[in-house]
Design goal:
five-stranded mixed beta sheet, globular, Immunoglobulin-like, 18% helix, alpha+beta
């Protein structure tokens, strides 16, 4: 593959990958009328909900891990760059999930990088391979999870029932010199927010991520739970549910990694 081009896109696309098949929303979730200090008093433990394996739905393929081997100009990484998406790369599984968000957040684990390899790039393309959004990133030196959000501007909004292909690269050296890079890529589709789902989310209150998971919405589940953890870092139930969510996609070894950077560009 030429290092100046993105990987070829896939022409056959699978329908959205089913995520967490449970009976969570069969009855209303009860929430206390008065606010309390700790989410532990409001959130029901959901280990069974978030620990289920995700079935394979075939195409489209992707690359969930960015490799660790030394390449020309690239460091040897102890842990690979990893897209936090459903799929099992060792078994050639699908890397396709859904969202209801116009401007979703994309999550990647980035290992500790040397100073000369902290240049990153995020690219979102439509199904035809046209750029929707492209941005350069200065990456943290500390190993951990980063989140990359689309700017809240109509030109970047995802269209309903459309499929998108995203890429994340880490350059080995100055990108202007066209160096080698590690990369990951995956797919997503924006689906409609139905009245039923909207009502379930209103009922869920502080545990929207469980409803997102039950309705096959990976990107929304991980982002909502990440947001809750950032404001409640000592909440045990949220930490356990975060771990179980990672187990559900076969990435439990990354569940203890901190969230080290959020990129929220405004354009």
């Amino acid at each position: 593959m030429s290092k100046n081009k993105l990987p070829p896109r896939h022409h056959q696309l699978a329908y959205a990958i089913p995520l967490l098949v449970i009976g969570l929303v069969s009855e209303p979730i009860k929430v206390q009328a008065n606010p309390v200090q700790s989410l532990g008093n409001r959130v029901t433990h959901t280990s069974n909900l978030l620990a289920q394996k995700f079935p394979d739905n075939g195409e489209p393929r992707g690359r969930r891990r960015g490799g660790t081997s030394r390449r020309d100009g690239c460091p040897e990484l102890k842990t690979p760059i990893t897209a936090l998406v459903p799929g099992e790369e060792n078994n050639n599984k699908s890397f396709f999930a859904s969202t209801v968000a116009e401007y979703p957040t994309f999550w990647v684990y980035v290992p500790e990088l040397p100073t000369n390899s902290r240049f990153g790039e995020f690219v979102l393309q439509d199904e035809q391979g046209n750029d929707v959004y492209r941005t350069s990133l200065t990456l943290p030196g500390k190993a951990g999870i980063i989140g990359i959000s689309l700017p809240s501007s109509s030109q970047y909004a995802l269209k309903q029932n459309s499929k998108y292909h995203w890429f994340f690269r880490v350059y080995c050296g100055n990108p202007q010199n066209k160096p080698d890079y590690f990369f990951v890529d995956a797919w997503l589709q924006r689906v409609a927010l139905t009245p039923q789902l909207e009502q379930q989310l209103k009922t869920a209150k502080s545990r929207e991520y469980t409803v997102y998971g039950a309705n096959n919405l990976w990107y929304d589940a991980v982002t909502n739970l990440a947001n809750l953890r950032s404001t409640n870092p000592n909440e045990r139930v949220l930490a356990e549910d975060w771990t179980n969510l990672f187990k559900a996609v076969g990435l439990e070894e990354l569940a203890q990694a901190p969230i080290v950077q959020r990129y929220n560009p405004q354009k």
